[in-house]
Amino acid sequence: MGPVQVLVVGFDQPTFSGEVLAELARLKAAGIVRLVDLLLVTRAEDGALETLDGSTELGEDVGALVAAILAQPEGDAAGDPGVADANQAVVEAWSLADAVPPGSTAAVALIEHPWAIPLTEAIQRAGGRPLEETWLAPDDLQVLTALIAQRAG
After folding, report:
1. Cβ atoms of 4 and 36 closer than 8 Å
2. Whole-prediction pTM
3. Which of 33, 59, 36, 49 is nearest to 109 (CA)?
4. What is the pLDDT of residues 122-145, one digit of tens each?
5. How are beta strands 49-52 and 4-11 bridged, if at all?
6. Please, what is the Cα angle at 77 between 76 and 78, to 5 degrees?
7. Which of 85, 97, 112, 118 has its CA 20 to 30 A from that of 12?
């Protein structure tokens, strides 16, 4: 399996038309990403998280993998110490409650990046390992776009 990203997308007023799932299907067909699982949650104003029924297009047990991964106690991943070490880092660094603001709905997706398998293997053969992974925030992305435009101009 390739690197798997936990992507949490917030919705103030969700309108699930199927457009996002169609795009994920297109990306899967192109070998870019694969939606491993998807969990829909809502967070009440008092902070309580509740799961919502998912799309029947994804199968009966949609959300079960996300829920199982996020419910792992620190350092426990089915008794596999290698997985436990990696899982512990995720649990310590990230919390669903921190990611979803009160009064909102979110989709929590496990997205595999098969395109990155050869890159990951090359990094490992070179004796390297990822130390941090993040996405630029929208404001930072605007700054980067402006810097690239300046450089090109």
Report:
1. yes
2. 0.74
3. 36
4. 999 999 998 988 889 899 999 999
5. unpaired
6. 110
7. 112
